[in-house]
Design brief:
There is one protein chain. With 321 residues, the chain is an alpha+beta fold. 67% of the residues lie in helices and 7% in strands. The protein has 12 helices and 4 strands, in the order ααβαβββααααααααα. A 4-stranded mixed sheet has the order 1-2-4-3, sandwiched between helices. Strand 3 (103-108) and strand 4 form a beta hairpin. Helix 5 crosses helix 8 and helix 6 (145-170) packs antiparallel against helix 7. The radius of gyration is 22 Å and the shape is globular. The chain starts with a helix and ends with a helix. The relative contact order is 0.12.
Length: 321
């Protein structure tokens, strides 16, 4: 997917999300009056507080600590060099002590920007592949993906709260209020439908921004497409093995949208590379993935994922290469 086409797709998806939200919110406010404004304020306030405090929750959940410069000189060098190439302020370098090979960028105005890699990622990938993964995460920071996705996520949440409020209130209307109770129930059901539609658009936007971050890595890292392809293939394969070995690995999926690869998709994505085995060279591993077909079932599963299908993702990188 070319840069211009990708940018237009992102803008088009954002326009669809905001357009649908504005349309249905206007209809609901017109039908019910300004009393619904309190729900809007609560939804925005909840998501704003969550955004501001999320870095501290992430640090606690993923056992994140700031990396020691003396012990991780090479990692610091990568982040500083690629941040300069990206034209952004160097984020804090963090290490997450969890048994899943992954990386993520996060932050807020209160906590500042941060890039974290897991201890398992450092063991699983070669230095050049880690460099490409860092380039991807810095792409998220440059494109302000944390802020964009937080803002967009407010809209589905808003309609979820409206739906819950309307359905709950319709259950307690009696006598002369039955007609208004029926109207509230209808609005509640329509709001739930809008919530699901907006959620699907949000998933799609998230997948587009993963491609966008991949493109950023390809542009700032020498031989970026090859390095990132090999790194992603190894992350998917290793994540599957780790989830089978560590029964509690699933608890690290709470903020999976942040990760470079979705842990929940690891099992499905690994089917595409399971027959290769890690004994093959990194290049051969990627080539085997590229030869595989994307089935209808794969496309349906992808609709409900924050990350692209691994085969489609590696093909996009291969075209850049």
């Amino acid at each position: 997917m070319g840069l211009r086409k990708l940018q237009f797709s992102i803008l088009g998806t954002l326009a669809a999300i905001f357009g649908l939200s504005t349309l249905f919110l206007t209809i609901i406010l017109t039908l019910l009056g300004v009393g619904l404004v309190s729900i809007l304020i609560l939804a925005v306030a909840f998501n704003l507080i969550q955004w501001l405090l999320a870095p501290y929750l992430i640090d606690s959940l993923y056992r994140v600590r700031e990396a020691s410069r003396s012990e991780n000189a090479e990692l610091y060098g990568m982040v500083e060099r690629l941040s300069q190439k990206s034209g952004i302020k160097t984020p804090r370098v963090m290490i997450a002590d969890i048994p899943v090979p992954n990386a993520f960028a996060y932050g807020s105005p209160v906590a500042g920007t941060r890039v974290a890699v897991t201890t398992e990622l450092m063991k699983t990938l070669d230095g050049e592949e880690v460099e490409a993964v860092i380039g991807h995460e810095l792409g998220h920071l440059k494109h302000r993906d944390v802020q964009v996705m937080m803002f967009v996520s407010v809209l589905p949440a808003l309609f979820y709260y409206i739906s819950y409020s309307m359905l709950y209130s319709s259950m307690y209307r009696r006598g002369g209020q039955r007609d208004s109770g029926s109207a509230a129930a209808v609005i509640g059901l329509v709001s739930m439908l809008v919530y699901w539609v907006l959620t699907m658009f949000t998933f799609y936007l998230s997948r587009l921004r993963e491609y966008y971050a991949d493109l950023h890595s390809a542009n700032i890292v020498e031989e970026g497409p090859r390095k990132l392809s090999e790194g992603l293939a190894k992350i998917v394969y290793s994540t599957t093995r780790m989830k089978r070995k560590h029964r509690d690995a699933g608890r690290f999926n709470s903020f999976k949208a942040l990760f470079i690869s979705d842990p929940d998709r690891a099992e499905a994505d690994a089917v595409s590379i399971a027959q290769t085995g890690m004994h093959m060279t990194d290049r051969r591993l990627v080539e085997d993935v590229l030869r595989r077909e994307v089935t209808s079932a794969d496309r349906i599963v992808e609709l409900f994922s924050t990350h692209p299908n691994i085969v489609k993702r590696l093909r996009a990188l291969h075209r850049l290469d």
